[in-house]
Amino acid sequence: MRISELAARTGVPLATLKFYLREGLLPHGLAVAATRAEYDESHVQRVAVIRALTETAGLPLQRVGEVLRLIDDPGPDLFATLGRAVGQLPPPIAELPADADAETAYPRARAVLEQLGQVWDPHYAAVAQLERALEAAEAAGLPMTPERARSYGAAIRAIAEFDVGAIPTDSSGAVGYAVLGTALYEPVIAAMRRLAHQDVAARRLGIEPAHGPETSQAG
Amino acid sequence: MRISELAARTGVPLATLKFYLREGLLPHGLAVAATRAEYDESHVQRVAVIRALTETAGLPLQRVGEVLRLIDDPGPDLFATLGRAVGQLPPPIAELPADADAETAYPRARAVLEQLGQVWDPHYAAVAQLERALEAAEAAGLPMTPERARSYGAAIRAIAEFDVGAIPTDSSGAVGYAVLGTALYEPVIAAMRRLAHQDVAARRLGIEPAHGPETSQAG
């Protein structure tokens, strides 16, 4: 297809597609004439990935480029590449000062991970993200407790087992899937949790749901 | 304490506290002299709530005011008030056009909720949020599947049961706790999921974790 058709197919303006081409995010189409390049389904898919990373995941373009490079060339150490690719996702975290001790810099995150018996590596971006999130909850008067960590940990592990089991086995597909699956399903999980709160609260309070299933109306 | 001490205690600049006072977000202190008002722990707590809502949850000040009004005056229908308060949280959702049919406007969210046997009310803000999140995942080539909905649904329900069980029983405390607990633990859950991915992947790939617990080194 022509680039104008790619714009129509993806709903992305032509000027934006040309910008992606200039920035090296989108590979050039196959030149079929001096002034015409041919685009295919791989370009449609790549545009969808760029849109998901920028618009839904909120990644700056520079980081999108880094993720795409890791997708295109995952290298031999898939585990490290997955970590680096997911580490590009927001929220951005501040680098530890050079004189900081990584072992002691994230006490709240470490306590949770040690309680759950999980891998503890202070160089994982998500460790710093967890520490910041736990600090904020604590500052607002809702500190993490061992009971909450236990409940959340078991539930989140079940989600993670499903996620990892769904990752394709080829390493290039794995990186893209892992990054998108991480980023795109965070808002899904957040919305599902809010809806589960309402469902659990309605049942505990004995409220007749407006559009509940038969079973809830009977219960 | 004087307002300058309140600033020191909370780490919030004096000018910001005065802004909160002017906007009606923070109650005035008790006037103990013509030019001096006395602040107490309730003010410290209120400032922490405002900071959590603005900085961590990313709420615009106008919506913070609405949440605080619901915390201060939850009214007789606690369930409706909880829904309205949590509905102020990001992401903002577009109002349905007047001629749209709410029953059919959220097909992806409805399918998930009906599969899970949960309350389905198209007027819950989180229904629209779930629909947008599911649309974005689908557009990027990772549509929700019944298998994922089942795995996620059971895990998220366990989290929600814990959350609702932890809510204080007085209605004023309940509203503040529910809003903060919803907003502040979303980034905690997202970070814990990323870390669980790494733990599950490391174990499946047989990678020795850098700082894993004894059990994982033996396994």
List the SSEs and their pairings.
Two copies of one chain form a homodimer.
Chain A: H1 3-10, H2 14-22, E1 30-33, E2 36-38, H3 41-56, H4 61-72, H5 78-86, H6 107-116, H7 125-139, H8 146-166, H9 171-204, H10 214-218
Antiparallel strand pairs in A: 1-2
Helix pairs in contact in A: 3-9, 4-5, 4-9, 5-9, 6-7
Overview features:
disordered C terminus, homodimer, mainly alpha, 219 residues, 3% strand
Q: Any overview of this molecule?
A:
With 219 residues, chain A is mainly alpha-helical. Helices cover 63% and strands 3% of the residues of chain A. The first copy, chain A, has ten helices and two strands. Chain A has helices spanning 3-10, 14-22, 41-56, 61-72, 78-86, 107-116, 125-139, 146-166, 171-204, 214-218; strands at residues 30-33, 36-38. Chain A has a two-stranded antiparallel sheet with strand order 1-2. In chain A, helix 3 crosses helix 9 (171-204) and helix 4 runs antiparallel to helix 5 (78-86). The longest helix of chain A is centred in the last third of the chain and has 34 residues, at 171-204. Chains A and B meet through helix 3, helix 5, helix 6, helix 7 and helix 8 of A and helix 3, helix 5, helix 6, helix 7 and helix 8 of B.
- pLDDT < 50 runs, ≥5 residues of chain A: 214-219
E-strand count of chain A:
2
Q: Greatest interface and its residue counts?
A: A-B, 91 and 91 residues
- End-to-end CA span of chain A: 56 Å
Mean pLDDT of chain A: 89
Largest sheet of chain A: 2 strands, antiparallel
Net shape of chain A: globular
Strand content of chain A: under 5%
Strand order of the largest sheet of chain A: 1-2
Q: Which class do the helix and strand fractions of chain A yield?
A: mainly alpha
